[in-house]
What we know:
Elements: H1 2-9, H2 24-38, E1 40-45, E2 48-53, H3 59-79, H4 85-93, H5 110-123
Antiparallel strand pairs: 1-2
Helix pairs in contact: 3-4
Amino acid sequence: xxxxxxxxxxxxxxxxxxxxxxxxxxxxxxxxxxxxxxxxxxxxxxxxxxxxxxxxxxxxxxxxxxxxxxxxxxxxxxxxxxxxxxxxxxxxxxxxxxxxxxxxxxxxxxxxxxxxxxxxxxxxxxx
Length: 127
């Protein structure tokens, strides 16, 4: 079914499938999705490539950027010997429980948000 739908849309089946990060192709399509949704960008400098989040690409990108900064802070502490590997792993595996940099709230799924916007526009077409 996925292959037929992908053919009709003229996209790769991986582009519309649940991400499979256990394969290189699946991981690449996950990166592409992150680019579209969260402002992930790839940059090349002197033959090396880096994945970064552009926080100017909207609130989702801004939030992910903050999360990555928090992660980088912990990784830097590990590298500097300020925390142990066990403390680092505890932070990662229990994230965001030990992140004290911001308060977390649950948000509604994007699909539901999109439906609200669609209904609002039906009722208020000039806005």
